[in-house]
Amino acid sequence: MAPLRIGQFEALDPKVNPFWQHADRRLFLARRDGKVVGRVACIDDDNHNRIHGDDVAFFGFFEAQDEAVANALFAAVEARARERGRSAVRGPLNPTMNDGAGFQVDAFDELPYVMMPQSPPEYPVWTEAAGYTKVKDLYTFYFDNRGGPAERLAKITERAYRRYPLKIRKAELKNFDSEVEILKRLHTAAWENNWGNVPFTEA
User: Fold this and answer.
1) Which of 62, 76, 128, 168 is most buried per CB count within 10 Å?
2) Domain extent listing, the chain
3) What is the residue-averaged pLDDT of the chain?
4) Alpha carbon of 79 to those of 25, 84, 107, 123: distances in Å?
5) Average pLDDT over every residue of 155-162
């Protein structure tokens, strides 16, 4: 199941996506006999490198018809990363952890879910053959809630309500700006210690 094209265009458009205010991108297409057979983006996020003390560029939006195409795309990204003075390349990110990351490595018989990467089983094989190694496992979980919450989850919820002064309410759209500020604070706090997280800028 392919992502929506408009979403892909908007993610890559510096006029729409404020991520590109602090990140550089170089987009590559691979052609064979005049036909496009692959694509990749080289992404250099200054905020990521500053926050994590890294010196990496990323590859993302990767698609390749075969291993030779994959190798050519990786070589293009690595050359661009060297031009930018980066010492390593990591990926895929599309273009950030918040937008989808990694290759699918299991459950190829399952339908994908929102923001779950879907890729052929060859992609991680080709990537490792090109010299890349895994740095993190990312998991997707399936939770069937059509019959209501499971008994165990209901007990956990009850315990949380007793332990913490939780209040759940509907968003007040008439106070849109202040509600967004609350959501931004919650998101930043919830994701603060997650691997690879870079807090959203105001933009």
Assistant:
1) 62
2) 1-192
3) 92
4) 13, 9, 33, 20
5) 90
Q: Are 76 and 28 in contact (CB under 8 A)?
A: yes
Using DSSP, state whether 57 is helix, strand or coil.
strand
Q: How far is CA 46 from CA 20, 40, 50, in A?
A: 10, 19, 6
Q: What is the tens place of the pLDDT at every residue in 133-150?
A: 999 998 888 777 788 778
Closest CA to 99 of 17, 186, 176, 14: 17
In contact, 81 and 44? CB cutoff 8 Å: yes
Architecture in CATH of 1-192: 3-Layer(aba) Sandwich (3.40)
Torsion of CA 11, 17, 19, 23, to 10 degrees: 80
Question: Which pLDDT belongs to residue 148?
Answer: 77
